[in-house]
Design goal:
The chain is mainly α. The protein has a domain of 226 residues. 73% of the residues lie in helices and 2% in strands. It contains 19 helices and two strands. It has a two-stranded antiparallel sheet. A hairpin with a 5-residue loop joins β1 and β2. It is globular, with a radius of gyration of 22 Å. The protein starts with a helix and ends with a helix.
Length: 498
């Protein structure tokens, strides 16, 4: 095994091994030191691997002549791995303070650190078998995070999460067998691997379309795509806030990454463009966007409101990907980055309020945040910046993402569906403003009759402030430097995928 191989495998295996080591005798007496060092090292290794390795195929285990566990640090893997490596240490730093009141911490950190590596494995998977393996591992390794409190509602949410994930994985598994038979290779290849001559000769085009549709629905379960979305607003609110942040900001993206691989690296955009599968997934994504926005608008529980928002916002990415054009891909990449940072920031901000004002609760009511801006100005300012990005205010990452989505929507073959998509995006933006901005305005401007003495005095530690500041800044900088991101997408992705 070469040094290049080790550099690609290290970000995947190192956090998994060090995470499981927490179940044994601790290397350091202070678990925070151990977890912090291992998380930081994993992030450094991931960045080093992303920037210093070549686009080589690394086979970890060859099962048969055609099946193998293999990894490749290609450009989509590099981009998503770096995003994970930026956010994960910040959430871990936040967790050190937050989990002081919510034991047991050893078990949480063991699984939390392991999931870091598994998510890198999902992004770096070089074939559908490896992707499916790490996709399933991620489901089972995140279950303890969801049921951390071991309360009845947490256990119920965990069972729901498991059932929906298994149903989605079962649908995706069916696609694996068909793609193996009708593909010229099992490795992810830009433009797709389908043997078009074989499919055409057997008149199996519609069968492959049906299989592709079911596979996308299956992987879409992790992304909260209707109709397999109900687990998300149930599981996220009961999980500890650090887990909610990565579940919503990053782990839902595992479903998006899997769908992206199937669309552009297995089936191919040319095979899907103009088919009923493209239009059906777009319609489902738009339905999810509208449903999530409406449910968030009427929801009163703060974490549930943010969770419903995730249902809506993640499907923006699905919508953009299925446009199957360059602007759609650009919008999808920008939305992944901006949403990951914005939504992580929102959950961490909500967690600060819960931590200091409603100890032991799993959620807080959105209308109970009047006046908290006086004691938590940094928290609520960061919350506000992240909200503006989700709404799509100019200069933020959310605005740039939605701009390119609208451009892409105008270029699809079904023009009426594209116009409908733009209308839904605009309605969703208004609803997003309606369920996020009142939280911020009430926090800073509660009214002349508000009794500020009812707000407890709060001293926020820096390991909670730093993640909020960096994540909210990232949501804005994604928009300010959108041109550089689009340049990367055009040069490294679009030229090979379309």
């Amino acid at each position: 095994m070469t040094s290049n191989d080790l550099m690609i495998l290290a970000p995947v295996l190192f956090p998994i091994i060090t995470g499981f080591a927490l179940f044994s005798r601790p290397i350091f007496e202070d678990r925070h030191v151990y977890v912090g060092v291992m998380t930081f090292l994993t992030a450094i290794i991931t960045f080093f691997s992303a920037f210093m390795t070549n686009n080589d195929l690394i086979v970890l285990w060859k099962i048969t002549g055609t099946l193998s566990i293999a990894f490749r640090m290609d450009y989509p893997a590099r981009a998503f791995s770096c995003l994970v490596a930026f956010i994960w240490p910040l959430v871990t730093l936040y967790a050190f303070e937050y989990l002081r009141r919510r034991p047991p911490v050893d078990r949480f950190y063991a699984f939390f650190l392991s999931v870091f590596g598994i998510l890198i494995g999902v992004s770096c998977a070089a074939n559908l078998l490896t992707l499916y393996l790490f996709y399933e591992l991620m489901t089972f390794m995140t279950l303890p995070l969801v049921m951390h409190s071991q309360q009845r509602e947490a256990i119920r949410a965990t069972v729901s999460y498991l059932l929906y994930s298994l149903l989605g994985a079962t649908l995706a598994l069916g696609g694996f067998f068909f793609f193996q038979v009708y593909g010229v290779s099992m490795e992810f290849t830009p433009g797709g691997v389908l043997d078009i001559a074989k499919i055409t000769a057997g008149k199996n085009e519609n069968m492959i379309l049906i299989v592709t549709f079911l596979t996308l629905i299956g992987f879409g379960a992790k992304a909260g795509l209707v109709p397999l979305h109900a687990w998300l607003p149930t599981a996220h609110p009961v999980a500890p806030t650090p887990a909610s942040a990565v579940l919503s900001g990053l782990i839902t993206k595992a479903g998006v990454i899997a769908m992206f691989r199937v669309i552009y690296y297995v089936v191919g955009a040319d095979f899907l463009r103009g088919t009923w599968v493209q239009y059906a997934i777009i319609i489902m994504a738009l339905l999810t966007i509208f449903t999530g926005s409406m449910m968030a608008f009427i929801e009163k529980h703060l974490k549930k409101r943010i969770a419903w928002s995730s249902v809506s916002q993640v499907s923006y990415v699905v919508f953009a990907m299925m446009l199957l054009n360059s602007d759609g891909i650009s919008g999808a990449v920008l939305q992944i980055a901006s949403h990951a940072m914005s939504k992580s920031c929102l959950f961490l901000g909500a967690g600060v309020v819960i931590y200091f004002t409603l100890e032991g609760a799993n959620y807080h009511y959105a209308d109970q945040l009047r006046g908290v801006g006086k004691e938590l100005p940094i928290t609520m300012t960061c919350f506000g910046l992240a909200s503006l990005s989700l709404i799509g205010l100019p200069i933020t990452g959310g605005f740039s993402a939605k701009w390119y989505m609208c451009l892409g929507a105008l270029k699809i073959l079904n023009f009426n569906l594209g116009i409908a998509g733009i209308i839904i995006l605009m309605i969703s933006a208004l609803l997003t403003a309606g369920y996020l901005l009142p939280i911020v305005t009430d926090a800073f401007f509660p009214g002349n009759d508000f009794d500020y003495s009812s707000v407890p005095s709060i001293k926020l530690s820096w390991n909670m402030k730093i993640p909020l500041l960096l994540l909210s800044a990232g949501a804005v900088l994604t928009g300010l430097f959108a041109g550089e991101i689009i340049k990367f997408v055009n040069e490294k992705l679009i030229t090979t995928l379309l």
